[in-house]
Amino acid sequence: MSVTPDDEGFMAAAIRLSRRHLGRTATNPSVGCVIVKDGVVVGQAVTALGGRPHAEPQALAEAGDLARGATAYVTLEPCSHHGKTPPCAEALIACGVARVVISVTDPDPRVSGRGISMLREAGIAVDAGVLEAEGRRSLAAYLTRQTKNRPYVTLKLAVSADGMIGRQGEGQVAITGPEARAEVQTLRAETDAILVGIGTAISDDPLLTVRTPGLEAQSPIRIVLDPLLSLPLTSKLVATARDVPVILVASEEISPLGSEEGSPPSVLPGISPARGEIGKRRDPNFQGSGSPFATEDVGQGATSQPISPPVGEMPGRAEGGASSVDATDADARRVALEAAGVEIVYCNPYHPEVLLPALATRGISSLLIEGGAKTAKLFLEAGLLDRIQLYQAPVVIGEGGIESPVQATDIPSGFTHMGTQLFGVDRLDEYEREN
Ligand SMILES: NC(=O)c1ccc[n+]([C@@H]2O[C@H](COP(=O)([O-])OP(=O)(O)OC[C@H]3O[C@@H](n4cnc5c(N)ncnc54)[C@H](OP(=O)(O)O)[C@@H]3O)[C@@H](O)[C@H]2O)c1
Question: Where does the record locate the signal sequence feature (predicted)?
Answer without folding.
Answer: none
